[in-house]
Design goal:
Helix 1 packs across helix 2, helix 3 runs antiparallel to helix 14 and helix 16 packs antiparallel against helix 17. This protein has about 500 residues and is of the alpha+beta class. The strands form 7 sheets. A 3-stranded antiparallel sheet has the order 3-13-6, covered by helices on one side. A 3-stranded antiparallel sheet has the order 10-7-11. The protein has a two-stranded parallel ribbon with strand order 1-2. It contains 18 helices and 16 strands.
Length: about 500
């Protein structure tokens, strides 16, 4: 990574500028790009080193000069396996830290605000209004704290529905191809599972029953589901202890039936692999996951499972919840030039060429486009020698400005952006609600431990439902779950303006 310094004269000129946006104005009025402010932003990397990082950085900065952006970029690859540690260190370094970064797989917006790691972005709304108009209003709320915008949501579908995928040869064998690509009923789904098990008892059919979309709850962003909204949060005002509801008991009984019918892998609590590996290995014949379109689900399976063609069944409707906003981009509190960082962030969301440098690299070197606008490795290039990570477009602010990579689905991203404006799509009433457990910290920690002890055993059908749920809820009560729900409801009422 090349170290870049601004000339002292430029620094002095910027420091004496006064008023909001003065730094950005000083930068844009300087005709010498070598004196433009340089923004350090993280890029995704499996190793922390990308062979073409400098070449791509130079190409990006050449383009920024061509459009008179007034800002340049310093790309900082962070090794994914050690990213949390590296980010934490960079976010405390006021001289050589990071300016732009994302919170996915690192933290939450609330925790970053509490740790003073990010700045509010609201002062830039008038200068960059398009940034606040890209997505549904409810999506922006998921990256706010106390009404302030501390993070910009990264482009995604912002909602999903549950799908079931199955090997096509088995779907043909059991006679269910007429249902492929359609939304099916619960009875039809159970019939498919029963027929598949009868035809191939050597395979398992369900690899992960901990899917919240199929249970139709909004878990409010917490993986332990201690307080949830039923009906995926649609028109819901009341937070409940999910584990004492009739809905949870019914789902556990269904899971027990699935286990007794042989749909799970043997010893499921100790075999927690992914469906995408179990199917190619001949262990599973299908499984559930979430998707925003049937075509996307099919394309995903085509990319992940090479030795079998897979088909898709839709199980329920599209809904957006807090848990379906997966990422956001932030300006660090140690950033020396937030105006310049915001300028680059705006370009990452709105300029196709800027976005593609990050997600795909350099056309003709790291990728090439086919006649449908889909991106592929050039001849003789693969993941081992490409010198850039093309597998994680979702990491960046606006993947939808890129080109679908390693797929023939040319509508991969347009299907995603269609989700933003589809009037039929529904969203949880709690979109943007962020629970702060500080007032019930001890109770929450104790109940989380109880969930870890009981929940998966119930969902994988490894215990008697009645006795396990009774013990489960007794311990949750003893550990203070009612106090947690009361505090969650209080905060949710405040969020709703009650």
């Amino acid at each position: 990574m090349r170290k870049k310094m601004m000339a002292m004269a430029a620094v002095t000129a910027m420091m004496v500028s006064a008023g909001t946006g003065s730094v950005a104005m000083a930068a844009q009025e300087n005709d010498d790009p070598s004196k433009w402010p340089v923004v350090k932003m993280e890029v995704v990397s499996s190793t922390g080193e990308e062979a073409k990082e400098q070449e791509i950085e130079d190409a990006l900065n050449k383009y920024l000069v061509s459009i008179d952006a007034g800002v340049q970029a310093d790309l900082v690859p962070l090794a994914f396996g050690d990213r949390a540690t590296q980010l934490t260190l960079l976010l405390t370094d006021s001289e050589n830290g990071i300016d732009l970064f994302c919170w996915r797989f690192y933290s939450s917006v609330t925790d970053m605000v509490n740790n003073d790691q990010v700045i509010a972005l609201d002062d830039y709304r008038d200068q960059y209004p398009e940034l606040w108009e890209l997505f549904p209003e409810s999506v922006y709320k998921t990256c706010q704290v106390n009404g302030k915008q501390y993070s910009m949501p990264a482009a995604d579908s912002f909602g999903n529905f549950q799908v079931y995928t199955m090997r096509k040869d088995i779907a043909e064998e059991i006679g269910v191809m007429d249902l492929v690509g359609k939304k099916i009923t619960e009875e039809q789904f159970e019939d498919i599972l029963a027929k598949a098990e009868a035809a191939h008892p050597e395979l398992c059919w369900l690899t992960d029953p901990t899917v919240t979309s199929y249970q139709e709850i909004d878990n409010l962003g917490f993986s332990d589901w201690i307080g949830v909204l039923l009906n995926q949060g649609i028109d819901q005002d009341t937070i409940v202890n999910y584990y004492e509801t009739d809905e949870f008991r019914a789902y556990c009984e269904k899971c027990k039936m699935w286990a007794d019918n042989g749909y799970y892998i043997d010893d499921p609590l100790n075999n927690t692999g992914m469906m995408a590996s179990y199917v190619p290995d001949g262990i599973a014949g299908g499984g559930m996951f979430e998707a925003y379109s049937v075509d996307y689900a099919a394309a995903l399976m085509s990319a992940q499972i090479k030795n079998y063609e897979m088909v898709i069944f839709q199980l329920n409707d599209f809904v957006g919840t807090n848990a379906t906003v997966y990422n956001g981009w932030n300006i660090s509190s140690t950033c020396q030039n937030p105006d310049a960082a915001m300028k680059l962030l705006d370009l990452l969301y709105t300029d196709e060429k800027v976005a593609r440098f990050l997600a795909l690299g350099i056309e003709g070197e790291t990728y090439e486009l086919d006649e449908n606008g889909c991106a592929w490795y050039p001849e003789g290039v693969d993941s081992s020698n490409v010198g850039w990570n093309l597998d994680c477009p979702w990491f960046y602010p606006n993947e939808c400005l890129g080109a679908p990579f390693n797929t023939t689905l040319k509508t991969y991203f347009t299907d995603m952006t269609d989700c933003w404006t589809n009037p039929e799509n529904k969203y949880s009433k709690a979109m943007g609600f962020v629970f702060d457990p500080a007032n019930v910290y001890d109770q929450y920690a104790a109940c989380s431990a109880t969930v870890a002890e009981y929940r998966d055993a119930l969902l994988y059908g490894q215990v008697d439902v009645d006795s396990a749920i009774e013990k489960f809820n007794e311990e949750l009560k003893e550990n203070g779950i009612d106090e947690i729900i009361e505090e969650m409801q209080k905060q949710y009422d405040e969020f709703l303006g009650k």
